[in-house]
Amino acid sequence: MKNIAMRIKYDGSAYHGWQYQLNGLTVQETVENALSEACGERIRVTGCSRTDAGVHALDYVLNFRSETKIPVEKLPYALNYRLGDDITATEAWEVPEDFSARFSAKGKRYIYLIRNDVFRDPFMNRYSWHFPYELDFESMRRAAEHFVGTHDFKGFMAGGGQQKTTVRTVRLCSAEKLDSIIKVTVEADAFLYNMVRIIVGTLVYVGCGKIKEGDVPAIIESGDRKMGGITAPPQGLFLEKVLL
After folding, report:
1. H or E element, residue 65
2. Which residues pair with 196 in a beta bridge?
3. Burial letters for 46-56: b for 16+ Cβ neighbours within 10 Å, e otherwise?
4. 3-class secondary-structure state, position 238
């Protein structure tokens, strides 16, 4: 029995997130069904994290155990043959028995795209948050730096989060602007439920003057979800890299 790791990427628009659900199609269910057909046995996969409905992944790592005779390096081809256009496997390799995509990752990096323009772009609607009001980008950029470090991010977790501890180490939090697109990048050892989306919503509140950039440290320290910004919508969020 081999323990096999695989990298995939997906457009989450048509899915109810990663995690298997009874009431909607998910990425996990779709991948498991395709792998089971390819390998000729029932496959269950472990994912590196849960992503919400509408969230995308440029680099997602999963692992599974199989007795398949298909060479491991050929598995992406066998899987892609059975998948639609919105999920693609890019790499597979054999890993030690104790490897877990969920617990072996040393960190993750997310990006979030905000389209700050008066008019919608029909080609970006599924991949960015259209925010039509003026934003002070420089205030957002400076405010982002306050999230770097080891903090208790309890106030940046949506209801329903079940983590044992809310302390996380953010290694990078930055904002960049190119024309009408603002890209927020957040890298951390681990994340709380909706943590990136709440950070982005808070930065947008800074940008439109609802929160002062200098108040961000106090908001983090308070642990009070009500003091931060809104939860940014899911479609602008991408899991960019899983750090192994």
Report:
1. strand 56-66
2. none
3. bbbbebbbbbb
4. strand
CA distances from 40 to 47, 70, 150 (A): 21, 10, 46
> What residue has token string 């980008």?
137
Half-sphere exposure of 6 (CA within 13 A, CB side): 32
Provide the residue type at 15 as one letter. Answer: Y
Residue whose tokens read 């925010």: 131
Q: Bigger pLDDT: 169 or 21?
A: 169
Tell me the pLDDT tens digit for each residue of 87-128: 999 999 999 999 999 999 999 999 999 999 999 999 999 999
Share of the chain above pLDDT 70, in %: 99
**CA–CA gap between residue 222 and residue 228 (Å, rounded):** 10
Domains in the chain: ranges and CATH: 2-94 (3.30.70.580), 107-243 (3.30.70.660)
CA Rg, the chain, in Å?
Answer: 19
105: how many CB neighbours lie within 10 A of its CB? 16
Q: Are 99 and 208 in contact (CB under 8 A)?
A: no
Q: Does residue 159 have a pLDDT over 90?
A: no
- pLDDT score, position 23: 87
DSSP 159-206: TT---S--EEEEEEEEEEEETTEEEEEEEES---TTHHHHHHHHHHHH
Predicted TM-score (pTM) above 0.90 = yes
Q: Which of 73, 76, 37, 72 is nearest to 60 (CA)?
A: 76
Annotation says 52 is catalytic: yes
Total residue length of the chain: 244
Q: What is the per-residue pLDDT for 161?
A: 64
For residue 35, the SS3 value is helix
